[in-house]
Amino acid sequence: MQYLIKDDIYYVGVSDHKIKLFENYIPINNGVSYNSYLIKDEKTCLLDTVDEVKVNQYLKKLANTLNGRHLDYLVIHHMEPDHCALIKEVLANYKDVTIVSNQQVFKMINQFFDLDIENKLIVKEGDILDLGKHKLQFISAPMVHWPEVMVSYDSYAKVLFSADAFGSFGALSGNLFYDEVRDVDYISEARRYYANIVGKFGNNVVNLYNKIKDLDINMILPLHSYLWRKDFDIIINKYLKWATYMPEDKEVVIFYASMYGNTEEVVNNLAEILANKGLKNIKIYDVSQTDETYLIAEVFRTSHIVLASPTYNLGIYPKMANLIHAFKSIGIKNRTFALIENSTWAGCSNKLIYEELAKLKNVTILEEKVAIKSSYKETDHQALENLAEQIIEDIKKEV
Ligand code: FEO
Q1: Cβ neighbours for 217, distance < 8 A, ≥ 6 positions apart
Q2: Whole-prediction pTM value?
Q3: pLDDT-derived band of residue 64, with 50, 70 and 90 as boundaries?
């Protein structure tokens, strides 16, 4: 079968419905797609390859779609192995194909593979690859998500091949376009993909957006997940929020750690007080039970974050410490934090968490802090009331 998308552009990507860990650490429940495209113009041009686990399926699809035609070009937008793993196999099957990419990609090809590439075309920002009617213009997109990344714009078809940008987790199930599916998890998974894969590089995403925003685009074709031919605002507006670290929802998320259930009881009480005061969509997560990639995504979504941690070995509870370390590493900013500690002796987690959060840019740490001794008691209620009041007051503030 040949899967025509539009104007001589065919989909030759594959989906892995079985994969459980993306990059061998991020849990994914609905697989992932590795998108690859073939343009059949006067010249034929393959845009990226796929992960090596799908080698046989991919080479069959490519051969079927070429349908006897010779492959002239292979464009590499991104050298991460989920997209470039099959360069060698493509070269073996289409011996005189010309590899087209930038200098950094060719350097990385040598790092990953022992390959002697005879036909190569080195391109840079603004260069155009002429395929006939289709002309691919290259736009560098460093650090979205690796330094060598580029995207390309087909001025004939008005298509942006956007590499990792505007992608998501999730395998495709026949329907390629977002407008063909009813996928209620999509935004959550796109957020989790963004936050954990590209999240650290918000400025670079904004730079890319500024380069493409005036192009006449009627299709966005990323390397992962759905393709876009309408309603671009859905994904672009989300990406811009995430890239500028601006919260989507003025809501509260509570992350807690609890060894024996006492800190859990405290945050349950806080959540009920907040709900009783009218706050909606409060979310509570046990940092020991929920994979950190989901928590990071929630931080990108939400404006107000409560951290409730036992003091542990005169420090921060390890899972909580890891999460806070991730905030720093990803560069989280523009958020409000509230702190709760629990200790049986020598409580210090509020102080230590405060010191770590204070290193983030443009964050507010609420004055009211709650310190529990071992277990929640009615005498702790007023402190929680005070904290809840301050959270609500802060949420009501105009940004
Ligand atoms: Fe899907 Fe950065 O590779």
Answers
A1: 153, 158, 159, 160, 232
A2: 0.96
A3: very high
